[in-house]
Amino acid sequence: MIVSHRAAAVVFFCIVAVILTIQSLRLHGVSTIRHAGSQFDSEASSDVLNTTLGFQKIFVINLPERTDRRDAMTLAAALTNLQVTWAKGVSGTDVPDKVVPGEDWEKSILRGNKGSWRAHMNVLNTIVNQNLTSALILEDDADWDIRLKSQLQIFARAAQLFTHPDSRISTPTDLNKVTNIPVSSIPSPSKQPFSSPYGTNWDVLWLGHCGTNFPTPSIVLTTHSNTSLLRVTVSNDPTVPSPQHLKAHPFALQDQLAELYPPHTRVVHPSSGTICTQAYAVSQQGARKLLWRFGVKEALTKGWDLVLGEWCDGLFVDVRDKGKGGEMRGGRTGQGPVCVTVQPPLFSHHFGRGAASDITAPGGGFVNREKEMTPYVRWSVRMNMGRLVEGGEVRDQWPDDE
Ligand SMILES: *[C@@H]1O[C@H](CO)[C@@H](O)[C@H](O)[C@H]1NC(C)=O
Ligand SMILES: *[C@@H]1O[C@H](CO)[C@@H](O)[C@H](O)[C@H]1NC(C)=O
Ligand SMILES: *[C@@H]1O[C@H](CO)[C@@H](O)[C@H](O)[C@H]1NC(C)=O
């Protein structure tokens, strides 16, 4: 009898919890929702829940004439209780050749890429000039899950393994071996006055991309930091779509995440070969390094996202022997950059019906333009915008059984 009473009580409380969740969704907007399967609630990382997600500012790059995107982004930010700062996009025709650093920059580079480079440099310039401790930089077609803040709380804890020099996690002795560490075993961030709730020592947190790789032993040996083969896993994350929805684009042959991990696992790891800059955070030190390297010193040779990816891979770390290309990988003199990313990404490109990027479409333009969607993001803000504004239940864009 006692057992069945208990069972009834459990069922009752579950029903109440579901009703309360739905009520809070309807009545109070969505910013207070937590993961159903959240593994912890960390008091210490509550800064991540503020209106700038634990960064000092959130910048959104937007071409002034793209008022359509500005309206959508303003609403998306308001609906998830975020405060964004607009950063003017730059058109390539407005960038004179003489301001591009370096001698041998590729003059045939796409005009859109030139404008995009300058827009990102302008944001980095502002971050350095205002001495911001950190900032998140978004492109104006970025989308995210309405549970973003609780996702970022978990990400912040995972990132500590790579960004906190005094990490109490014992690292494996065999650094040539891939090691998975569950996020729940990482100590919660302490209350020390860190420069950011994401840790003390990082350059880039690459939160929104259209593809990244797990670092391999050979890459770790030739570039980068000694933590590179470590990965932090977040299992049973209900915000991760099931494997059939993880292929980045129709011609993707495989998705490593889906092949290597159980369904609904998110993995935080050092960046390797990451592309597309839908969303990335920089620390003050990261902004200074990037502004010096790409605003002042280095020639522009390709799109900004590809250059940032190579920088994170350690390809621009100065070397003793002044070799070019492949040689640059060895014998570095300085510390490699600390860039941490996550699969699947927490921000993703929103594809509106028939809409195209002002530069080029991620996925090589193979995206089905007829279908409005955002890869990887289940409770998408953009896909639910009408229902969030006018009332209605939030829909899962990537249900498990479809
Ligand atoms: C959010 O938290 C970060 C980190 O503590 C802080 O720098 C930022 O100013 C906060 N944002 C707001 C709007 O208070
Ligand atoms: C920039 O911020 C750092 C710490 O956040 C501080 O030590 C430094 O004095 C500041 N510099 C300027 C120019 O405000
Ligand atoms: C990385 O290397 C440095 C110096 O070689 C060492 O002090 C540090 O403990 C290493 N970190 C890890 C996580 O192994």
From TrEMBL:
What is the protein name stated in its UniProt record?
Answer: Glycosyl transferase family 25 domain-containing protein
Q: Which InterPro entries match?
A: Collagen_mod_GT25, Glyco_trans_25
Tell me the organism's taxonomic lineage: Eukaryota, Fungi, Dikarya, Ascomycota, Pezizomycotina
Keywords of the record: Glycosyltransferase, Transferase
The residue stretches assigned to a coiled coil in this entry are: none
Q: Does the keyword Thylakoid apply?
A: no
A GO molecular function assigned to this protein is: transferase activity
Superkingdom is: Eukaryota
Q: Which family does it belong to?
A: Belongs to the glycosyltransferase 25 family.
* Limits of the Glycosyl transferase family domain: 56-291
